[in-house]
Amino acid sequence: MRYAPSDSPVLTLTTGPVDAYPAVLRGLASPVLYDYDPLFLATYQRVCEKLAPLVKSQTVPVLLHGEPVLALEAAAASLIGRDDVVLNLVSGVYAKGFEGRAGRSSAEIVELAVPYDQVIDPAAVAEALAARPDVTVVAACHHDTPSGTINPIAEIGAVVARHGALFLVDTVSSFGGMAIDAESAHADLFVTGPNKCLGCPPGLSILGVSERAWAKMEANPSAPRASILSILDWRDAWRADRPFPFTPSVAEVNGLEAAIDLYVTEGPEKVWARHALTARACRAGILAMGLALWPADVAFASPTTTAVRTPEGIDEAALRGEVRARYGVVLSSGRGATAGRLTRIGHMGPTAQPIHAVVAVAAFGGALTALGHRVDVGAGVAAALAVIDADRDGD
Ligand SMILES: *Cc1c(COP(=O)(O)O)cnc(C)c1O
């Protein structure tokens, strides 16, 4: 049998948009209240306050009402002023993309770049800052999703903090799937969202803001006000004594509350452990089939995404097409500089379950074999199961 493009996929194992938890879908289906109804105002405040111990920012997290590229635009426009020199740490497509956002408001952008299968070395950041003491803002991406690599963000953040610059970090595709928060990252502006590892649909951004970042934004004459890019306007937005800057995404806020409740009930450490185990099983299966991971060192590999190098002679789009047509499984492509060179298997939210790694390995290996690149699918499946079973034995 074949799945036609018009057939619904059986499993979506992508890196975003990701499958949503059923409880989140039920949250989204709650009655859509008037935004000034006291019940919704209370929900809005409760959601922001429930995020506080998870994001661990110095002040109560702020919601913006669009998927996290909105928050990245808003962060660049609000934090970075005409006199700021920005050090942009580039190990992938998202970090590189930040250059364009930062370029609209900064005096200068200095780049520290590594090949997209590597990660940023904190010592190199220290050197770059020593060479440019005038750097006032450092920007980084924790998990550059199109490469499936994790930067050592806590160590980088400590270097930035010693220098005294403000630190802006994108954790959109790692937050909720591994141990990362604004405090451990030393982040002044912690940009994330619920639409990857928290298992919500795209539609909201979450920002963790330090006291210094608020002061900087308030003093920045070019920081947007009365704009969809204004972070300042959304501070403490639930306060009954003033209007929302514009209509909040009521249904998405209800969905986010369901996601937070699920996450807290399961326990963040447990959630992170199942993301890590799923990724470990997936990597073992891929390697046992004689394939290569995209990250140059397995120590760089993300627990929320497994990026597999496309074997020589294989058309990456055709490979994903075959995975979907044969098995009904949807995987992600690369993006920009990694497009055509790798395939990504997402382990995010509800798909971060070890058995999905077995499915992904089998489907990937089966499709490759069908395209003429013969791999030992049985060995891949056995290796993935062995990782899962070894973990179970440890319980
Ligand atoms: C998903 C993601 C975002 C959000 O942006 P989209 O490209 O619109 O999905 C931002 N940063 C990172 C690292 C992401 O993975």
UniProtKB/TrEMBL annotation:
Keyword list, A-Z: Aminotransferase, Pyridoxal phosphate, Transferase
Gene Ontology BP, a term: glycine biosynthetic process, by transamination of glyoxylate
Recorded coiled-coil stretches: none
Record-linked InterPro entries: Aminotrans_V_dom, PyrdxlP-dep_Trfase, PyrdxlP-dep_Trfase_major, PyrdxlP-dep_Trfase_small, SP_NH2Trfase/AEP_transaminase
Residue numbers bearing the N6-(pyridoxal phosphate)lysine modification: 196
Family indicated by similarity: Belongs to the class-V pyridoxal-phosphate-dependent aminotransferase family.
Protein name listed in UniProt: Alanine--glyoxylate aminotransferase family protein
Lineage of the organism: Bacteria, Pseudomonadati, Pseudomonadota, Alphaproteobacteria, Hyphomicrobiales
